[in-house]
Amino acid sequence: MTDSVLTLLFAAVAVAGLAVLGVVLWRNRHPADRQAATVAELLQAQRDGAARLEAMIKMLADRQSQVQHAVNERLDSVSNRLGDSLQKTTQHTAENLHKLHERLAVIDSAQKNIAALATEVTSLQGVLANKQSRGAFGQLRMEAIIADGLPKGAYEFQRTLSNRTRPDCCVFLPDKRPMAIDAKFPLEAVTAYREAKSEDERKAAAQRLRTDVSKHIADIAEKYLIPGETYEVALMFVPSESLYAELYEGFDDLFQRAHRARVMIVSPALLALAVQMVQQIQKDARMREAADQIRDEVARLVKDVSLLGDRVRKLQNHFNQASEDIRLAIVSVDKIEAHGDRIREVELETDAENVVAAPTLKLQAGE
Q1: Which end of the chain, N or C, is less packed with Cβ atoms under 10 Å?
Q2: Based on the domain organization, do 20 and 153 belong to the same domain?
Q3: The domain containing residue 255 runs over which residues?
Q4: Do 136 and 282 lie in a common domain?
Q5: Are residues 164 and 218 both part of a single domain?
Q6: Closest by CA position to 246, among listed 181, 167, 168, 188
Q7: Residues 6-29: pLDDT tens digits?
Q8: Within a domain: residue 311?
């Protein structure tokens, strides 16, 4: 800004010098008698130019000061705004980075959970691939449903029956007969049926599935339905809702066969419903037992009340007899008092009439 002002000053001085030089040259063309006046005018013009130049310099200095002040104010304002903006931007960036770190931590945790889930799925596939492990898995799921829905003492796992067989679970009904529950997991047959690509493969897989499930039904009916010992219906537990749905939708004949064999095929949801029904049956049995006890107690209470009535009536008779005896005793007392009153009256009259004969009476009494 200072360099531009100096440039303007130099330009103004140059213009003034050119003007003076032009006036001098113009004046040189006139006669000599005007030289003195010309010199005076030049001096005056120089003074005027110097005054104007000084005023212009002062004005330019004031203007430069104002411009410098305005520029400083604007620079300060811009600096403040820039500082506030940088601070807000820094804070916003820090918050975004913090949120980003939190989200990355969540994503990292989710990734770990996914990895763990993948490992569990792999282990579950390994478990389900083994027939014994698959059976243990179904049994554990059945045990969890039973233990969660029934109180202790209402069931027993691996109970040995009279024919030396051991169902997975026995649920005790109110008549003390156990209802057998056995877990079966026909995963291989159902998987082969689902993955069959041709019609022949599908028919073969369906026949295999019917054979496996029919064998399970026959085994349960033969081993766990003992007349007089167990309940007349046993449960075949299929520990997968999808497998049960597959059987129910495509193999209705298996359910009919199970019904004829008095074996009920249940899924986890149906087993839970059956457990609730057993709970209600046991509750009703307890209520009937309580009602019988209440009826017996009421009968005993009525008997005791009857005995109490008899005893109260006997007591009333005794009380009435005692009241009569008391009345008679009071009558006797009244009579005695009356006799006493008459005796006192007789004695008083005798005393009044025989006052003079008293010594004689006394003498005679002495004799």
Answers
A1: C
A2: no
A3: 132-286
A4: yes
A5: yes
A6: 188
A7: 555 555 655 566 555 555 555 555
A8: no
**Is 84 found in the same domain as 6?**
yes
In a domain, 293, yes or no: no
Give CA–CA dist 169/224, Å, rounded: 11
Q: Which of 250, 266, 286 is the last residue of a domain?
A: 286
Give the residue, 89 or 125, on which the prediction is more confident. 89
Asked if residue 167 and residue 280 are part of one domain, the reply reads yes
Residue 313 within any structural domain of the chain: no
Closest C-alpha to 144, from 129, 132, 155: 155
- pTM value? 0.46
Report whether pLDDT(34) > 70: no
Tokens (6 digits) for 40: 């005076």
Assess if residue 265 is contained within a domain. yes
Does residue 86 sit in the same domain as residue 149?
no
Structure confidence by residue, pLDDT tens digits, 128-158: 445 555 556 677 888 888 888 888 888 888 8
Verify that 272 and 161 share a domain, yes or no: yes
Question: Structural domain tally of the chain?
Answer: 2
Shared-domain flag, residues 237 and 147: yes
Label each residue of the chain as H, E or C. Answer: CHHHHHHHHHHHHHHHHHHHHHHHHHHHCCCHHHHHHHHHHHHHHHHHHHHHHHHHHHHHHHHHHHHHHHHHHHHHHHHHHHHHHHHHHHHHHHHHHHHHHHHHHHHHHHHHHHHHHHHHHHHHHHHHHCHHHHHHHHHHHHHHHHHHHCCCCCEEECCCCCCCCCCCEEEECCCCCEEEEEECCCHHHHHHHHCCCCHHHHHHHHHHHHHHHHHHHHHHHHHHCCCCCCCCCEEEECCCHHHHHHHHHHCHHHHHHHHHCCEEEECHHHHHHHHHHHHHHHHHHHHHHHHHHHHHHHHHHHHHHHHHHHHHHHHHHHHHHHHHHHHHHHHHHHHHHHHHHHHHHHHHHHHHHCCCCHHHHHHHHHC
Contact 164, 182 (CB under 8 A): no
**Cα–Cα nearest to 217, from 251, 249, 246, 175:** 251
- How far is 287 from 299, CA to CA, in rounded Å? 18
Kindly give the pairing relationship between strand 169-172 and strand 263-266.
Answer: unpaired
